[in-house]
Amino acid sequence: MPDLSPVLRQIDQGFDASVARLQELLRFPSVGVDPKHEGDTKACARWLAEQLAGLGMEASVRPTEGMPMVVAHDRTAPGGSPHLLYYGHYDVQPADPLELWASPPFEPTIVEGPRGPRVVARGAVDDKGQLMTFVEALRAWKAVHGSLPVRVTVFLEGEEESSGKSLEPFLEANREELAADVCVISDTGMLDVDKPAITYTLRGMAYAEVTLHGPGRDLHSGMYGGAVVNPLNALCRIVAGLHDEQGRVQVPGFYDDVREIAPEEAQAWQRIGFDEKAFLQAAGLSVSQGEAGRSVLERVWSRPTCDLNGIWGGYTGEGGKTVIAAKASAKLSCRLVPDQDPAKVMAGLKRFFEERVPPGCRLDFTDMGTSPAVRVPTDSPFLEAARAAAAEVFGVPPVLIGCGGSIPVVASMKRLLGLDTLLVGFGLDDDQVHSPNEKFELVCYRRGIETHAAMLGRFAALTR
Amino acid sequence: MPDLSPVLRQIDQGFDASVARLQELLRFPSVGVDPKHEGDTKACARWLAEQLAGLGMEASVRPTEGMPMVVAHDRTAPGGSPHLLYYGHYDVQPADPLELWASPPFEPTIVEGPRGPRVVARGAVDDKGQLMTFVEALRAWKAVHGSLPVRVTVFLEGEEESSGKSLEPFLEANREELAADVCVISDTGMLDVDKPAITYTLRGMAYAEVTLHGPGRDLHSGMYGGAVVNPLNALCRIVAGLHDEQGRVQVPGFYDDVREIAPEEAQAWQRIGFDEKAFLQAAGLSVSQGEAGRSVLERVWSRPTCDLNGIWGGYTGEGGKTVIAAKASAKLSCRLVPDQDPAKVMAGLKRFFEERVPPGCRLDFTDMGTSPAVRVPTDSPFLEAARAAAAEVFGVPPVLIGCGGSIPVVASMKRLLGLDTLLVGFGLDDDQVHSPNEKFELVCYRRGIETHAAMLGRFAALTR
Q1: Do B299 and A242 make contact, defined as CB atoms within 8 angstroms?
Q2: Distance between CA A234 and CA A253 in Å, rounded?
């Protein structure tokens, strides 16, 4: 195994520069979903390709019908080395509501927090800060050794926060180029700054938009109120029926394929010492609400959900307007768990709405995309290597955790490239992902870079 | 009773000039709510005062903190004559969306329609065309007889379509000057060009805005979904409970003071021959929805409602965003019927929401204003005189109708001046009030002038 300590020294000496590069990356308003940021998003991809080329990698920006892919290869490792495929995404969520940001979302700001300095910006942790942990680890290895200890391909996309439409066609069209032994993704979290974690389950997703059309035009609520369907009230009524009093989702067949977790899994989760109170506090809440009789971890890691993500209709400006709106809309998504079929859930959701359309109304139901839940094998040598690497950096072994979020690419990697994924991430629950004032603790950034450096060394010990 | 026929001849001979004056009035873009039309609105008030002064009335423009009032007195009637207070408003709704107008909204255009010529302009019927029906009737009487047969005060305001904030203080400050025997308003409708109507009930209103606050910030629906309250779903759940399966409003005490209409009223409504199908068709609907077991007329004229006027929360832009929003909001209003206490309804509405706030959530409830329903006495000699006058002009007696909308000034006249109001209006359901291409049928304008002329004559027969 190559010597790690000079690499760690290099990371330490170069850390300020690593932070500066992260800030440079965060300055791109790469809101891929927003057409007016198309140019910014593409510029962000070019910047990343230049960074990787600067490490001596064979880097290219690859156009798609949407946002481009960045692909970079390094072939400096000894023959017979394992081949790692590092995945990240450079697009970010929209920054609104802007007025809730303490500093401009695309002017990354270093702020002192209870755990030391942090960088505040949209994308700070999701996923620019996290993808930079492996980029900077590669940089440190190269700086010290002039080469990497394993064969590496870096693959970065720009549609993770939006449609993700280009990903699978690109994977299919470039199977050979992207072939590897395992995929590594840093887009998940730890339990705390000194409690590393490796994620082994991810929830899937079924996302839909509905519009309920009623009257042919907006009506005067005096002239018509009481005698005509009100699409706003009607939509609320349908939505209210999505859950019963026990918090169980009422979509037909929703729980058919949902399995209870194994007893040993349940025991392992209890040992984690998850702090429910802190978790809720980070969300500005004091109580949990969800399926009756379930712990918070179960609710988030192993149970499916159905949540509205947006609702709108009628007059929403200042003051009052006495209108009965012609239509009402909502965006909603189900988080899915292993063994649930996303297509089946989407069909059930559609049926649920269709069966409840009031007389005189018409429903538009749009399938906005699905992805299955993922369960990563916990007995692979790569996962063992990652555990050992994290233990070396943190001084304690990482725990295996679930994640309530979805990383659709994990399922795509498996299905299209046959790759299992290592989910080694460095975020924290209070990082404000997708919210105003998103941040990444610099201590997490540093440990992330160190852990990836240690992983590179340990992967090298695994001959193919 | 003074002789009406020469007055009717005068109206006929002068009708083109009456139309020209209406067009002149319609050219003022008196959008009182829009600061950039403040000058136009005030100019409109001055023009009206000049018109009334031209009839020999003692007319003045009276400043308020907002748009001015126009007050004009005529004292040419014999002593002991009844005293009529004519109310109208010279401000109009904003004209947007402009692109939907076939001709510019403030260039009144005479267009041939299925019922003959009509004038198309913002304010054509609401309320400039209607207020001109009594102004032109006064003019014709003066032209023929040199005096009016009754004591008349004309009172025109410029904030009816906006805040209406100046009205009540002005009424209070000028009680003596505005004292009269009855108020007359032309701001309502007929059943058709040859089916005159007098409106005897108006619904009231209680308007509120609610915001349900949940998490302290927008959350990632993956990280938190299933374990935390979702304010959007929670608000929908509360709203869904506002009505039961029978369409009855579930606000505590809501129906306590609601009386069933009298059997003779119900019979009278059936005789009206109201065309439910046409009413719904005009709204782009084929079915009515509301309280079970009620006719459309009952639902609109005699039953209270609770309708959402707007709802918003979470992500409402293009594409998908997997957010659990920190809060959700709605605007909603109850239309009220006679004997309901608006304050009591508002308190019940507030309690309804407060009692349903889920654990961990907080409610903001804003009272946006209330006004009581109105029922005009149907046995007054003034109403009898108006019925006879309309019957004389139209050849058929007017029907007594309800109105689902609200005209807050009617309650103010009663409360502050002790005056009942005669609601004799000449609009039609398809006049596009508040919409693009607002119009007033010239046949309605002519019959309106004639009816007011006949009413003046019949009022004269009622000694004080």
Answers
A1: no
A2: 24
